[in-house]
Task: structure prediction
Amino acid sequence: MKPALLEARRAHFAYAPGVEAVRDASLLIGRGSFCALVGPNGSGKSTLLRLLAGILVPGQGEILFEGSPLANIERRRLATRISYVPQSQSTVFPFTALEVVLTGRSPYTSRFRFESDADRDVAREALATVDALRLESRSVTELSVGERQLVAVARALAQDADCMLLDEPSSSLDLKHRARLIAILRRLREERGLTTLMVTHDLQLLDPGFDYLYAMRAGEIVAEGRPSEVLQEDRLMEIYEDQRVRSRRIDGRTFVWSEW
Amino acid sequence: MLEQATEATTRSAPARRSSPSLMRAMLLLSGVLTLTVLIALSSGYQRIDWMGLRTDGTAFTIFFQIRLPRVLMGLLVGASLAVVGAALQALFRNPLADPFTLGVSGGGALGASVAIALGFGANVAGVPLVFVAAFLGAGAAVFVVYRLASTGTVVLPGALLLAGVVLNLIAAAGVLVIQYLADYSRALQILRWMIGSLDVVGFGLVWRVALFVLPGLVMLLLTARDLHLLAVDEETAASLGVDVRRVERIVYAASSMVVGATVAVAGPIGFVGLIVPHAVRVLFGEDLRLVLPCSLLLGASFLVLADTVARTLLGGGELPVGAVTALAGGPMFLWLLRRRQRYSAI
Result:
């Protein structure tokens, strides 16, 4: 692991008193690393991701970016460093896809200005990168869930941050776009040194490709390591508390499924 | 990848440009507003000879004591309701939110009724107590709505509107009880006030309302960018550097102040906050940085026009302006409900 860009130190978070969604979570995301966060539904992955993005503030413990607590970093400056792709978007107004992607440029735009032509070029290039430029003048409320995910990723790309946190960005993507998303993120790592942490249920995507995995269960981080280690059958059985999980490593690729 | 981008750039039609279209929209709406004001100033039961304004004492009095203050009040109230409506819609991500549907006007009405019934005609530091009471009532309604909206991690838009309906019913019942208990002349005063009117004499009240309303409107316009990001998605907005809780507090405080003051002078006037922002969206697009200032201009035009209709349609008599806006706005609201499939969730 390279020196940490983003770090959680014994972070706790509870949405309601007494019910801890994240308990004592510590993790290190190295600069330029390509990491994933896995675990069963309701294990606290999304909450931890929101803590790392600065959207939620830990009740105890702290989140550090380049060694300084998130709380000490001015919000809009942080937005030029960390981008975040939510699991789903609550947009009810018929904004066009381009308008949504342009919001990614807002950390670089002063309060009383509209985005410049250069910002538009960045936004359209981001849409082209995820193969969604054809959607630019469509209203997002008319798009399919998968198309919306592509637009959300394009918005985060337009934000041009050092670190991208994604919450199940591929859950509604087809096979082709799923692979493409991973390829894009890996290419940005090579080109710009982008650091990525992705929450995912898609265990097929992880080995090879990802550098490091964290696994959560019931609010705690219960396993971490290289994908080929974490995705071993006995460890997955523990993480998912399920004896039916199967895992095979064939030709340098880990396949995971569950018997039923 | 880049090749693909440039190719598509040349092929597809140029996307909507925000900045020049704001200028265009503002110019157009300023033109509409100027025209509306001229029509409003020149129409009325009493014909005014513009040439004789300086010499004719009666015409002078009618123009400067009655007609001009009334038009100014219409501008203030209309602009206020429309901007607050647009801001609340963005904040709650609900196209059916406005001061009226969320019960804020109702809360203000209850507060003002209490003040009238208790005979609070007095001023505190130049501010009529009725204003203060209406402000408190509106603030209480906003607080209830806020509590409901913020208890879950996900705002349930249906629940919000339902809460607004319930708040309006409670407020209406409260006003009825107060009217019943109050003495006859005060009950009549409340009734007349509940009907809603922009009728004012002289500029004194206009300035006092402006004192409340203008800072609130400025506050709301200053948050346009944050509201734009919030309208797209709350979590994304937070990750883009918007202090969501702070924006909420600003919008709540400004809305109660603005709606409280307008309800105190003009009574509860419905639907302006609902249809004006929607018309702006249909005409000029969804960008809140455009919707807020355009709603200000169009809201002012709409209410002044509605008031002109209200006071001239019957010849000698006068229709309640709230009835005119409701007759225009009610069908619009139903039409909005019908085509809600354009919005993903209401």
The helical segments of chain A are 45-53, 75-79, 97-102, 117-129, 145-159, 175-192, 227-230, 233-240. Chain A has two domains: 1-81+162-260, 88-160.
